[in-house]
């Protein structure tokens, strides 16, 4: 069986790198764990780092976190669904909100559970996902202030996740101005201004974020050390906290061109003869024990850079090892570094083992 391996030392070093940066700048931050898909083995590793706050978009994952360590502050990072209100109040200390009707329900449920539920009011700032429109924010904020058992922990925004709008310095200045406006209007202090996710880390490293923006939600940068502005690895961080290992189950030299009448394959793709110039060419192909049920090939990066990924079916991945300097054998493992979505698919699969180095 193919497996994903987490490298504990690399994870620890990435965490310490980020924690040092944030603490030196008086920034609050939480780890976004949604990529781990509620895997308790890996959640324990995150908790062991000394994390005080964990964010997730699945209530079931927050429930697991609370079962492992009730003291960790859990944050539900999307607007709550009506059918999830009871469990969100029970397992999420904080939730992101954009609808007054939903916050009313949270208030009513918090009263039933004898709790104070904290919320972050999310503001639409151009990425066109969740968020209250800026011109409606003051009225919205005032209405929520009067709801019992609700504590407005702060305001925030989400950028880059849908339309690709980047969290530039101008965007974060605009967010900090919303804080000033609300504080002046209601004579209150807003504890958190949550300026976004891993995509904002390069601005923090350049000391280009407004001081008022004091909270961030970090997942991809922790697990992949990635600068999402440049696509490069942040100096001092690791990009290979996770790796995929898949076993070779066949090695055969085969033609590069399929023969017979062609139709759609299992993924809905059709091979085009125009793709092949030399119909007599062959390649040494290896088949691995992982497939589309578990991953998407475009998110895998072979550690052996002489390997080429050809394609995958539901349960098998075909690679070209013709030019590799390694003498691969049946039963040998082939390793892959992962892009974020590659890890997400694999960690969500019950058919992929999860291990720790």
Please write out the topology.
Elements: E1 3-6, H1 8-24, E2 28-32, H2 40-48, E3 53-56, H3 59-68, E4 73-76, H4 85-91, E5 94-97, H5 100-112, E6 117-122, H6 137-145, E7 150-156, H7 169-186, E8 192-194, H8 201-205, E9 215-218, H9 220-224, E10 242-255, E11 282-288, E12 300-302, E13 308-312, E14 317-320, E15 333-338, H10 340-347, E16 353-356
Helix pairs in contact: 4-5, 6-7
Describe this structure in words.
Residues 10-225 form the Alanine racemase N-terminal domain. This protein has two domains: 8-224, Alpha-Beta Barrel (TIM Barrel), CATH 3.20.20; 242-356, no CATH class. It starts with a strand and ends with a strand. It has 357 residues and is of the alpha/beta class. The strands form two sheets. Strands 1, 10, 11, 12, 13, 14, 15 and 16 form an eight-stranded mixed beta sheet that branches. An eight-stranded parallel beta sheet has the order 8-7-6-5-4-3-2-9. The chain has helices at residues 8-24, 40-48, 59-68, 85-91, 100-112, 137-145, 169-186, 201-205, 220-224, 340-347; strands at residues 3-6, 28-32, 53-56, 73-76, 94-97, 117-122, 150-156, 192-194, 215-218, 242-255, 282-288, 300-302, 308-312, 317-320, 333-338, 353-356.
